[in-house]
Each structure stands twice: as structure tokens, then as C-alpha cells.
Amino acid sequence: MAEKADRAAAMRDDVQYVTIHGKKRAFVLKGSGPALLLLHGLACDHTTWTPVIDQLAKKYTVIAPDLLGHGLSDKPRADYTLGGYANGMRDLLTVLGIDKVTVVGHSFGGGVAMQFAYQFPERTQRVMLVATGGLGPEVTPLIKLIQVPGWFRVMGVLTLPGVRHLETFALRTAHEYGDVGPLRKVTRDLDEVADIVESWKDRRTRFAIRHLVRAVIDWRGQIVTMSDRAYLSDAMPMAVVWGRDDQVIPVRHASNAAALAPDVRVEVLPDAGHFPHKDHPEEFARILDDFVSSTEPASYNRARFRRMLKAGGSAPASPVPTLEGAPEPQAATSA
User: Fold this and answer.
1) What number of CA atoms fall less than 13 Å from residue 191's CA on the CB side?
2) Annotated catalytic, 227?
């Protein structure tokens, strides 16, 4: 636990800031070489990638932002839709002078990665989805509760000093002592849950998370799917990585990716939960490096894109789907 805190503290020392459209964005930028954009999941921040950033930075330019409403970035009243987040990543990359990237998205960040690839195919070389949303409706009931009326006020009480400290202590203790034996599947990610609970002491963070969740989840589960525009990115290399013991989004969703995109690479890591990049950082870095090294980057062709749009759903399925109900491509606004 102390080692994790030390790594996170060191990573925060590397944080840089840029203001875009009046909103402060936090990000980590390390290394040189082909660019990797690492997008964290719901209620997390760039530190979720701490175990792999230094390894990847030996060969790649790694950009790990805090999405708006998360971590050290601003938490304004703003556009928290998938399209808005994709626009924000486009703007950040433009300010940093980075033209093309391989996008790696974890959980909700996978949805942002797919939306980015749809809105900006000319800037997307590859997509890797890690325990991603958008491949099926099922999701843990704890996330469904966020969009229930009253969650904001209840969580405000549960994150008061004292109460919050007791909760996070219990979660981290359960993680530490349950990390062996039959309870490992359940307790594996509780340290990450403790970090999320800690972040919710900030009402602005709770506001952002509530609005974000309401855009993608209802009482039946995920309300977005990556299937309806799959044909639009026919030449985009895609990989999917999952933890076999994921308790947040079922690992069986990984097989849905193969049905939508026959050429997709699927890796299921044993003894891993919802954060396979944290459970097995060296193996994850190896898989990502192999994916980038062994595939040619996508090449965007406007005429081809136009032909596929006209053909619509009659066109062949593609390796990089996007999200049903998500905004159409936008080039002028940003979250």
C-alpha cells in the first residue's frame, strides 16, 4: 500500500497543465517515439496508468490525461458526453503538437477511445480497449446507482470526514488481507474503489461523475453500444484486453468484440480484475508494444469514408466500432 502511494506521488510530480477553452487540463507527458494516448476509466485519473507509464515511455511518447471532471483537471459545468471528451482529447493533442496516436482506453475511457476514433479517424492509428464499456449492457450495480435520484446527497454524507476515512480504511484493509485465497476475485480492486470514494469528497467531482454516468447508463445497464457504425473504420487495427476476474464489466463482453470485428486481437489475462494493466503491468506493456509493433497504422481516406457512409449498414463490419447514440463527428466544440 505504501509502495503504491509512493508511485502515485511520484507520478503527480510529473503532472503538467494546459488551459483550453478556459478549462485547466492535467496530464502526464513522458518519453519519445510513436504516441500513445492513455485514457482512464470512470472516477479514476492518470495514476491508474502509473504501473505502466515508465515502461512504455522507454519506447513511446506517452500522454496520460486526467479527463475533465476527474483528478487534477477542472470540474466545471460542461459537456460530459463521449463526443465532448473526444473533442477535448483532440484539442489537447493539438496543443501538444501531436498529430496521430494509438488510443488506449480503459473502461469508460474505452468508450472515449472509440468515439475519438470515429470522430477523428485521420488522427487515430490504432485502438486498444481495456475492460471496456460499449460491448454489452451488463455493468456492476454500484455504477447503476450513480444515476439514481438522491445519489449525490447520500454520497455527500458518506464522504464526510470520519465516515469517509472509516470507509476507505475498511476497503484498503479488505484489499490487502483479502488479496490471497478465495476472496481475491472480490477484493482485488478495492484499493481502487477506496481512491474513488476519497475523490468523491469533492462535490464538483460527484457532479461530473453523475452527469457522465447518466449519459451512458440507465437502470438496465449500459445504454451505448459499439456496433452500429462498425463499418466506418474498416482499416483500423483494434485490440481488446480484459481481466478474467473482472467484477465490474463481465469478461464475456470480450468475445462480443470478435463478433463485431473479426480481425480484433483479444487477450484475457488470468488472475486479473477490472484493472489488468495494474494487476500485470509488465505483461500489459508487452501486449501493447506487440500490438503497436506488429500492425500498420490506419490510413484515413476521405473518399473511402464517403463511400462507406453512403453504403451504410450494408458495408462490411469493421475492426473499430463506435457508439450507438453518440454525437456525430464534431470539429468546433470541446469539453
Assistant:
1) 20
2) no
